[in-house]
Write a structure and sequence with these properties.
This protein is of the alpha/beta class. It has 18 helices and 23 strands. The strands form five sheets. A nine-stranded mixed beta sheet has the order 8-7-6-2-3-4-5-1-9. The protein has a five-stranded parallel beta sheet with strand order 21-20-19-22-23, with helices on both faces. Strand 15, helix 11 and strand 16 (370-373) form a beta-alpha-beta unit. It starts with a helix and ends in a 17-residue tail after the last helix. The model is unreliable at 1-9 (pLDDT under 50).
Amino acid sequence: MNNAFGKAYGKSRIINDGNAAGDILECAEGLSFWGGVDPETGRIIDVHHPNHGQLVSGKILMMPTSRGSCSGSGVLLQLSLNALAPAALVFCEHEEILTLGALVSDRIFDRPLPTIVLPKTEYERLARCNSATLSQGRLSADDFTLELDRVEPGQLCLTEKDKSVLSGEAGTANKMAMEIICLMAAVNGAVELTDVTKGHIDGCILAHSANLIFAEKLADLGARVSIPTTINAISVDRENWQSQNVPQDFGNRASRLADAYVKMGVRPVFTCAPYLLDDAPELGETIGWSESNAVIFANSVLGARSPKHPDYLDLFIAMTGRAPEAGVYTEAGRVPRTIVEVELPLDNHDDLLWPLLGWLAGRCSPNNIPVLRGLEGTNPATDDLKALCAAFGTTSGAPMLHVAGLTPEAYLPPSPDAERHVIRRSDLVAAWKELNRGDCKIDLVAIGSPHASLSEISQIVELLAGRRCNASTQMIITAGRDTLLAATGEGLTEKLAAAGVRLLPDLCWCSITEPIFPRHAKGLMTNSGKYAHYAHGISGRHARLAGIRDCVEAAVTGTAKAQVPGWISDRAAE
């Protein structure tokens, strides 16, 4: 956190103005709206969250900060369009995802959604109240009233080109984009904007209508990206959905959403793992990405620089080539503020270690960048680090992590006041149990969240060793178009088809719904900590989490092992 940001967040501030009144719903833990809140009901659906089952609609919703997916901004916009949004949002720590959704709701769709940041003491005082009222910049609850400072981007140093865009000379769409970028800069305490070289768009999944409404509105206003920009996985197999029993209306709208971004100049790669492409960002490169796993991997493993930009802000940045210079764009913003010591025997572990560690590390450091120590003797593959980063993003709002001895900036000294945590074998056991709630009879094995790499596909072919999937079990792998093309060139897709394995482009498990998700399937297994965390909120099924070898065995036998793996369990130490 830079000094300007810390100073700004020491005040009671209103970021997005408006009037509101309602009962207070305090969430002691941050919440990912994507996969955590149903946009059609306003109910919290994340089964791992303490407030599971409660309604956010009409509430003065309090949480220290948000968590998880960049797509939470889109869910909030959909709630607003459905008249199911919270009456107001109240944070006490750095928050961007829901703040951006509230700004888009207000500035582009004329639906105010008040957003407030309070110092810790005032936040805790408000949390003890039952209800609150916001009127004309004044927050009242019980026997106290707070005067709120309005956030204004007046101190921002802009280039002449920035000013011309802000004045409307580059068109209405660019003007709106620059206005929101400047407001987000003020939220972050930034004093200037920075150039970015690449973009990645995340808000292209038809999880709700808001994403389509937003994209088509911007495209109709003439929005165009100004830097090389890729696009995330979408909600349909773009070329083949008509033959996959996808409802016509859904398929058409999902295709329109993809088309809107392609019309704006976005490269149609349709992958949630853009770091697997040939033009992956380089060490020190300043980029403007969304999609939580991609941002965390780019920062942590590649050493590129991008905050976890909320959905919709990613498009504004790609349009202007400019972003608020704050957070992990700065050296100070990349310093670890949590130290996580990993204490466990590492002999004989499999690739399941990495999603479990990522999920636990996020819980240890829900809001700050951590450094993991104790893994120096391991030799993780790129796929292991991909799994680590993706799982970390489900439980932490931080845009990166460091791993001592493994990641390029782990040399950065932790802040003097860094919190310290320890991950022990017992924590791994508890995490395994939390992420293995599903049936042991496996109907579906889901691989590719994030998108599978060529090496993962090759490994699955080797592990199958000529065997076929069980007659009652489907195995589906999602991967980017470039990866599938390479797999076809190496003869891997033919071997997988012979084994009864399906390969799907464009989609990712975080966007797959019925009928692509088999309606009959109850028992679900995955090698993804991210999908294991979100699966119930997306599909209504609990998952089982395992390493890729055990996933293949489950696909062949139709069953999963019920016991904790030996290398995790206490029995392994006896």
